[in-house]
From TrEMBL:
Belongs to the KAE1 / TsaD family. HAMAP family: TsaD. GO terms for cellular component: cytoplasm. Its cofactor is Fe(2+). It is an enzyme of class 2 (transferase). The keyword Transferase applies. The gene is tsaD. It is found in: Cytoplasm. This is tRNA N6-adenosine threonylcarbamoyltransferase.
Length: 341
């Protein structure tokens, strides 16, 4: 089954074709991604209306490009998958409208994919992917969640952030220290030059039981440290390193607790922050010390992309799940409500 995947939940337009007949990493026939970073940089964040309009401009050319790179035409497609939510409603409607229209014209099934399920399943695209049960850490600009995955489509939320997501905290912390948009990757790069331990910040909510997260207080600590410092470039780097170490330690501590609580030895990590090199190294080390395994998608599949939507949609379409011709966008969507595959 050859499935076209469309991602348009926020500020990146992603398109991919996944072929279940080939499977694994080789099943990803082609993908294309257009980022709107330059468009939103002047505003310091995503402007929903501008994002929607840019998806309108970029989506059809990206579909043509992806099909050409895959050596396919629309007539070769067996199904269409699109991000139905969560996300910005206007942006979601652009992808949903194009996907449903294409599926109707081709008389093939279509399915709306949960954005976070796409992230969760992205590591399973790789050839050495684990199979459930496992624990998933979904860590991005909009979400920080620990999920017990009993089977594909059977998810139990173990813990989530009570305020800022980890990626959001990275971006906001970078902004308050004067780093350009998008700040998260800039802060992580700057932290490589920082002196470990010069600035020590708390590991939020690790001194109490439970698997929830909170990063807003950590952000405030960094602000106070920055305002009270000499604000030199080296100090900026040292504070960035202290902040990153605090986030990485917090995520690792909570992940280990989740593995203990579920009696699992496999952790998968997905979402944009999953590309962070220090986080990857720490979680690999933690899981190996337990005799377990930490799995990640390739860095290109950590951020929003069409490949994860094509793959997640293909799994559900192959299982016989599809939808009627209605165009649906669900800005808020509980992943636990998804049907099992």
């Amino acid at each position: 089954m050859k499935v076209l995947g469309i991602e348009s939940s926020c500020d990146e337009t992603g398109v991919a074709v996944y072929d279940t007949a080939i499977g694994g990493a080789a099943g990803l026939r082609a993908q294309a991604l257009y980022s709107q970073i330059a468009l939103h940089a002047d505003y310091g964040g995503v402007v929903p209306e501008l994002a929607s309009r840019d998806h309108v401009r970029k989506l059809l050319p990206l579909i043509r490009q992806t099909l050409a790179e895959a050596g396919l035409t629309t007539a070769d497609l067996d199904g269409v998958a699109y991000t139905a939510g969560p996300g910005l409603v206007g942006a979601l409607l652009v992808g949903a409208g194009v996907a449903r229209s294409l599926a109707w014209a081709l008389d093939v099934p279509a399915i709306g994919v949960h954005h976070m399920e796409g992230h969760l399943l992205a590591p399973l695209i790789e050839d050495d992917a684990p199979q459930p049960p496992f624990v998933a850490l979904l860590v991005s600009g909009g979400h920080t969640q620990l999920v017990a995955v009993d089977a594909i489509g059977r998810y139990r939320l173990l813990g989530e952030t009570l305020d800022d997501a980890a990626g959001e905290a990275f971006d906001k912390t970078a902004k308050l220290m004067g780093l350009p948009y998008p700040g998260g990757p800039q802060l992580a790069k700057l932290a490589e030059q920082g002196v470990p331990g010069r600035f020590k910040f708390s590991r939020p909510m690790t001194d109490r039981p439970g698997l929830d997260f909170s990063f807003s207080g950590l952000k405030t600590q960094v602000l106070l440290a920055w305002q009270g410092s000499d604000q030199s470039e080296q100090t900026r780097a040292d504070i960035a390193r202290g902040f990153e170490d605090a986030v990485v330690d917090t995520l690792a501590i909570k992940c280990e607790r989740a593995l203990d609580a579920t009696d699992c030895d496999t952790l998968i990590v997905a979402g944009g922050v999953g590309a962070n090199a220090r986080l990857r190294a720490r979680l690999v080390e933690m899981c190996a010390a337990r005799g377990g395994r930490a799995c990640f998608p390739r860095p290109a599949l950590c951020t929003d992309n069409g490949a994860m939507i094509a793959f997640a949609g293909a799994l559900r379409l192959e299982a016989g799940q599809h939808e009627d011709a209605a165009i649906r966008a669900v800005p808020r969507w509980d992943m636990a409500a998804l049907p099992a595959v």
